[in-house]
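Friendly challenge for the regulars: who can give me the C-alpha cells for this chain first? No prize, just bragging rights.
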Amino acid sequence: MTTVVAAHAQGPRLGIRAGVNYAGFGGSDADNFDRIWGGHAGLTANFPLSADNFFSIQPELLYSMKGAENDGNTWKVKVNYLDVPVLGRVNAGPLYFEAGPQLSVKISDDREGTAPPTDDVKRTGLGYAAGVGLQATPLGLSVGVRYNGDISKLYDNSNAPNYRNDVFMLTLGYSFGGR
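First reply, four minutes later:
Bragging rights claimed.
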C-alpha cells in the first residue's frame, strides 16, 4: 500500500519527443523495397507505478512519417500517421527499456512517380513498439532507439499484397521537471 501511495505522490511527468524514422514495408510480399527517411515528433506522459520509478506506463501521441520506395527508385509512398503507443517502461538507472502496443491513425499520404494507389491504405493500424534508451535523469533528457512493427496489413483490399509498416526510430526526448 505504501508503494502505491508514494507512486501517486510523484505524479505523471509530461514531455516531448522528436527524431528520425528509417521506414520501410515488411510482410511476405515486400521483398523489393528500399527504406526511406522520415521523422516523428509529439507528446509523452510518464506515470510511475512504483515508489522508486523502476516501472512506469508511458502513453505517447506522435506524428510519424512512414513509407517505402521501390528498388529502382522510380516511385515512393509516404504515409503520415498519428501513432499512439502505450508502453510499459523499466527504468534501470540511466538505461530504460520499453515495449507495448501501438494504434496508428492515417492522416495523409503522398505518392511520387509510378507508385501504387494509396486509396486502399487502411485508416487505422494495430502494431507494437519496443526500444531501449539512455536518460540523463536530472536534466530530463533522453536518447533512444525504437522499433515499430505493424500486426495489421497496410491495405484494406484483400487482393492487395501483404505489406506492413516496419520502422526504426532514433528519438530524443525531454521530460519537463526532470525526474
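Residues 2-175 form a domain with the Porin fold (CATH 2.40.160.20). The chain has a mean pLDDT of 88. Your move, everyone else.
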